[in-house]
Design brief:
alpha+beta; seven-stranded antiparallel sheet; oxidoreductase; 187 residues; Split_barrel_FMN-bd
Length: 187
């Protein structure tokens, strides 16, 4: 037997003896727990509930990512189970607000049982999208594309305007909890 055959056989044994789980749609807890090991930033995505009304709608999202610098594209995913899903998959414009470490209360406002915009100060941009000031960053977008992503819709936005706010300390989410990144202070 050649050395490469020995290595391949050893790798095959290691793979077949490896421990792990297969995704189970009937029980997603194990997969959710494994995915929760990856820390993400926290954002609030805002839009108008209807084109002909100024009723604001928002959703806390951690599935935000940069796609391209040229053209300037971002993406985020809207859960199909959310009652806000229909608003975000129909809107032509939206804004993504990147939250600071001290804005956990703002993130909770836009979860399933949160107060949303009730009592919150905001303003509308020229497209009627609600903008929340004083966040770490904000990206105003035109919807570029929507893609089926299983139990989510992947929404790609073309950035038309952005703001980098003060600060550099983002709100993070991992292991089902909000947290904060503590940079290494050694110099």
């Amino acid at each position: 037997m050649r050395e490469s055959d020995d290595i391949e056989a050893a790798m095959g044994r290691a793979e077949s003896e490896g421990h792990g789980h297969q995704p189970d749609p009937a029980n997603t807890r194990l997969l959710r727990d494994a995915l929760a090991q990856f820390a993400t930033g926290v954002t609030v995505v805002t839009a108008c509930a209807h084109e002909d009304a100024a009723e604001p709608v928002g959703m806390t999202v951690n599935s935000f990512a940069s796609v391209s610098l040229d053209p300037a594209l971002i993406l985020w995913s809207a859960a199909r189970s959310s009652f806000r899903h229909a608003h975000f998959t129909a809107t032509p414009t939206f804004a993504v607000h990147v939250l600071r470490y001290d804005q956990e209360a703002l993130a909770k406002r836009f979860t399933k049982r949160g107060e949303g915009f009730d009592g919150l100060s905001y303003r509308l941009n020229a497209s009627g999208v609600p903008l929340i000031d004083d966040t770490l960053a904000r990206f105003e977008c035109v919807t570029e594309a929507r893609h089926d992503g299983g139990d989510h819709t992947i929404i790609i936005g073309r950035v038309t305007r952005f703001v980098k706010g003060a600060g550099t300390d983002p709100l993070l989410f991992a292991g089902g909890q909000f947290g904060r990144f503590l940079p290494d202070q050694r110099s």
